[in-house]
Each structure stands twice: as C-alpha cells, then as structure tokens.
Amino acid sequence: MASLSDAIRAFHSGGLSHNEFFSRIDRALAADHADSTGLLAVLAKEHAKVPLPPDVYAEVRRRIEDLMRPAHRFTADQTRMQTNDSDDSRPERVTSPPSGSIDKPIVELDRMKGIGDTLNGRFLLKECLGFGGMGTVYKALDLRKLEASDRNPYIAIKVLNVQFRGHPKSLIALQREAKKAQALAHPNIVTVYDFDRDGSMVYLTMEYLSGKPLSQTFRTPGFTGMTYAKALPIINGMAKALDYAHERGFVHCDFKPANVFLMDTGQVKVIDFGIARVFQRPDEDGDETIFDAGSLGGLTPAYASPEMFEHREPDPRDDIYALACITYELLTGRHPYGRLPSTQARSAGIRPQRPKNLGQRQWRALKAALSFNRETRTRTVARFLQGMSGERRALKYAALVTTGLVIAALFVVALRYYWQASIGSGDAMDASSPPSRDPQTAQPSTPAFSLESITPILSRTPCSAVTASVRGDALQVQGFIGERVGVARLKDELSKVPGVKTVNADIQQVSDEKCAVIELLAPYWISNQQRGRTTSIWTRDPDGELTEGDSLILDIATPPYDSYIYVDYHAFDGGVVHLAPSPRVRGNQAPPNHAATIGELGNWVVAKPFGTDLIALIVTPVPLFDGLRPEVESSADYLRAVDTQLAGIVAKYGREQVAVDFVQITTKAREGR
Questions:
Q1: Taking a C-beta distance cutoff of 8 angstroms, is the pair 298, 277 a contact?
Q2: Helix, strand or coil for residue 94?
Q3: Which domains does the chain have, with CATH numbers?
C-alpha cells in the first residue's frame, strides 16, 4: 500500500504535477487492486492527516471504488453500468440503453467531469491546473477558437466543487465572482471572461496562465526564502493587485500563496477573488450586498486575520495581514507563526523573528502588517510597500524606456486623502495683498514702486511664466524662464525699474525646447498662482533631482470644483508622454479639493537617457479631448491640439476654470555604473 501513500504525500509536498499525481495513482491502483478495501483505508488515513482538496479526494475514491465493481467489458457505444452504493450520496440520472439493446434503462451516476471531457460541446478539458476553495481549474481547448485558427486557443476553466454544486446559491456565487473579477481589470489580476453551466456542472472561464502558483515554490524541498531583490517584484505584483481591488471596494478574503500565480514571463497574477466580499468604504453609502459568496466558506487558517475568524466585516487590512504573512514566508521560507491560525498564535503569544535580509525600517513595516489587531495593523497596501522599500521613496522596478522617462506600467494606483495642499506663502504680497507693516513704526510701508510697472516687463519676456510680489522693499519673482533669456537678464531689467532696490528671484530655467509648452500654458499657470495655487503638482524629492532607479512620485491637488486632470511628461527629445489619462489609465476625473498621489507603488522608474524634463498638469472643467491621445506623440502636435481645445473651453466656461502647474525634474546616472 506504500505506493498510494507515497503518491498522496508527494502531491502534498508539491513534488508532482496534477497529471503526474493521477498517473501515479492509477499505477498504484493497478498494483494493489487485489485489496481495494485496504486502499480505501489508506486513502482515509492519509486524508485524515492532511486533507486532500475535495475534488481530488472524490476522484481518487471513485477510482478505488471502480476496482470493487464486477469486471465487465463494454463496447464503445454502450453506456457504462455503475452500481448505486449505499454510501454514495451523489445524484443519479437514468439513461436510455444503447440502440438495439434489450436491457432495461440504466442508472448512471452524474459524475464530475474531468480531463478528456467537453463542456457544452465547446471546451475540451486538457489538464488539471490546480484546486481552490470553490473549484478545480483546468486548462481547456476552446474549440471555437481552434476553428477560427486563433493563435491562442487555450483558456482556463474553473469547475465548481461537488459540495458547492449542491449549494442552492452556487450559481449565484460563480456569477458574482465573474462580475467582480470582470470589474477588476488589472495587469496583476487574472482576466475573467464569463460563467456558464453544463447540466449540473457550473463553471467559470478565464485567461490561461502559464507558470506555477507561489505555493508550489514554498513547497519546494529545501526552500529557505528568496533574497530581497528577487522577492521584491513578487511583493510588488501582489500589492498592486490588492491595492487596485481595495480602491474599488473589494477585499480578496482568501489571499494565500496558492492564489498568487508566477507566470513564465515573470509577471505576477492574483487569482480567485471567488469569495471576495464588497467592503463598505466610509465615503460611500452603497447598496446592501444581497448575496455574500463568503457564506460558502473558504478562508485559509494560516493566512486569515483574527477578524475573519471572528466573522467581522471584511476590511482591506485582512488582505494586508495575509500579504504580510506571504511576504515573510517569501523572504524566510517559513510562515511567521508556524502556520498556526492567527487566533491561536495570538493566544500563544508568538512573536515572529526579524528576517536576516531586512533592514530595521523594513522590519517595522512588516511587523506592523503582521499585527493581530486590525486597529494597529497597517491601513493601506501603499503604506506597507513604502515601509518595505527601505527608503522614503516608493519601490523601484524594471522599466520600459519611453522618450526620456522610464515608465513601468503607466497607471494611477493610489488616491489618498492624506494631505492638504499648501497654498501660497504667508509673508508674500502680490497685487491683491494688503501692504506690509514696518515693524518699527507699526505703520503700513508702501513700496517705492508699483507692480503695474513690473507687469509690462514680465509680459514681454519670451519663454517665461513668472509672477511678481512685494516683500518689504524687495521685489520677489518666481516661476520658469527659458535658458536663452536667463534669470540674470530678467533680474537686470527688473532692477532698472525706479524704486526697485532688491530683486529676489525664485525662478527655474527650462531648456529652450520647452518654450512652446511654457508660452502656451503660462497664462493659466499665472492665474493659478494668483488664486493661491489651488491646483498644484510636485515631486517627493524637494530638489526635483532623481537618480537612476528612483521612482517618480507626483503629488497632485485639484481646484475647488469637479475637474479633469491631464498629466504630461515633456521630454527633452521633443516628445510627450501622457501619464494620465492614457490607454492604460483612462480615469482622470477628480472631485473638488482632491489630493492624489501618482506613482507611489513604483510605477515610473528613472533610467537613461538622462536630462532635465518638464511635467505639466492641466486641469479643466470638462474633458479636454473626446477620446484618448496616443500614449506617446510629438509635443508640437499635442500642443496645437491643446491650444485649440483650451480656446473652446475658455470661451464657454471662462479662463478661471482652467488651471496649470509645472514641475521640473533632473535625472542622472547612479554613481559607480
């Protein structure tokens, strides 16, 4: 009987593929068929030690039971006779005898379909890929695609488990899973197509993934963890998928290594949002969830937060606990709490040890995410990643070079209300400010010059976006100016104005190829500054200097009205990259006084060619364009289109409804390369 036990243990260890497992089971049964009762005892014993997935157990038991039935040969066109054992609770169906037969109608068990079977005459099940809490996943050949000579005719199909097929709400569960998964269209989340049924069998169709689940890596003999650099892309992929789902109001509720798929291409996919339940975000009323797929069960004890065991409402922090457990296991090769359920680990007072390959700041971030208390656990995936990065910037990842900026996965990932935009300087005075007071006399001091005398100089200065204000007897100017004009030349002209004793300039020089951008958008930038810069964009690096490998993170504040944002990266080679919106980031509508962080998960990473580039934020009350622009295009072509569109918007809504802000960055190579 050892061969059957060995096959089951090898399956648990991850040493066998599913095809190899069933082939080995068949060989074991062929060798031990004289003692079928003993085989059932072995199966029961091994299943008691470590439970097999329900459908695997049912299939192995069926194969053993077949050995116990009287031998009988059937021709290819006959219906096979199966006895109705007293301990078999599976439903029966009556079939007609073969043509020409004189036998009575034959009773056949409504068995679970498997490899070699076809669903609805279209999907041929070719290979068993894995087992989840709700079903078995197969690689299937789509015969319709095959007929159409599709280059990729394979899909994945999840067939609902036997116990779920018997559940009165199983079809609802799968329909809800399909609907949720279709709403979660993200590069790190498996693409779900549709759901259907074939008789009593309910199934879900989705994209076919070539690779292996992370759980298989964890079960590899001798696995003791990955280096931080190797684990980082996996952590990033998992986190981006969860962050995207959380932003849309979904908690996975069964996040575990088996639901993280490592593709052969290196991409990470999160699968099986099957029991994900809509969580109530505090800023939304929402409709009551009529059906909760979580009522079918499905949490995994080693990765479930204490709150899940306590049946509390789902929360993103439940997924963060699971993410932290997986991250710890990825780095060390062992579960932080020895695979104990979180409630037991909490009662036992177990504290995980710091992984050797983590710095102090990273360990604090991981430890906070592993907290047994939801209130002290890390609140967002973005914050977890920021801490795990070991820097004060977001994570760094491999990049895709695009006209001066290296961009990996251009999309907006995290919108957070965590800061209020700073508006203006308290001691600066522009044309609308009251006069300053002399500290000696406590009387208002009047400058010896007027701003009206400054305005003509600024308006005729080419390639500039500059505003002026008065600070005591000094003239304060700030903004952007082209290199061909230069800050020194502007200061020299302003110092010649009668009454001007001092000129303080906070002006950034831009390369001459950016002059077209500056000159077109300067009027909107100036009016935005005069209104207190209610619309703003800036980088996390105060000096705007980024080194090769750094992540570009942009903070944005929007005006006090509903608006549409456009973030454009004008590179030094004359091209423009549309960061938002783009073919990958279609949503760009913002509520009043909104704060957003773009790129906090390391979406944009700097690499050569290096130089100085300008990023422009344009905010409009209505969409600037009816559709999406090409992701990368000529800056000159784009600016002509912008000029035309803005003219129409200004004519209808007024210039004050359009706002612009700039931020300039300088990129350089990392030392030692």
A1: no
A2: strand
A3: 1-68 (no CATH), 118-207 (3.30.200.20), 216-390 (1.10.510.10), 394-423+533-673 (2.60.40.2550), 430-509 (3.30.1340)
Q: Would you state the pLDDT for residue 369?
A: 96
Spatial distance between the Cα atoms of 22 and 4, rounded to a whole number of angstroms: 11
Digit-coded pLDDT (tens) for 473-482: 788 899 999 9
Strands 260-263 and 401-402: what pairing? Answer: unpaired
The three-class DSSP label of residue 127 is: strand
**CA-to-CA dists, residue 126 to 118, 139, 269, angstroms:** 9, 6, 22
3-class state of residue 638 by DSSP: helix
| DSSP classification of residue 655 | G
pLDDT tens digit string along 360-407?
889 999 999 999 999 999 999 988 988 887 544 332 222 323 333 333
Encoded tokens for 510: 């831009």
Max mean pLDDT range (158-162, 179-183, 279-283, 636-640) = 636-640
Instruction: Give the other-Cβ count within 10 Å of 51's Cβ.
Output: 11
pTM over 0.90: no
Of residues 213, 188, 219, 211, the one with CA closest to residue 335: 219
pLDDT attached to residue 394: 32
Q: Are 385 and 235 in contact (CB under 8 A)?
A: yes
- Whole-number mean pLDDT of the chain? 76
Estimate to the nearest angstrom the gap between the alpha carbon of 288 and the chain centroid. Answer: 25
* Tokens coding 422: 């700073």
Cis peptide before 306 (omega within 30 of 0): no
CA–CA separation, 522 and 444 (whole Å): 32
Least confident segment among 218-232, 477-491, 582-596: 582-596
**Pairing verdict, β 659-668 and 545-547:** parallel
137-186 per-position pLDDT tens digit = 889 999 999 988 888 899 999 887 655 555 555 566 656 666 766 777 78
What is the Cα–Cα distance from 239 to 369, expressed in whole angstroms? 13
With tokens 């018997």, the residue in question is: 166
CA distances from 351 to 312, 337, 354, 373 (A): 24, 7, 9, 13
Structure-token match 């095809």, residue found: 19
Computed on alpha carbons and rounded to an integer, the radius of gyration of the chain in Å comes to 32
Dist CA 448 CA 614 (whole Å)? 36
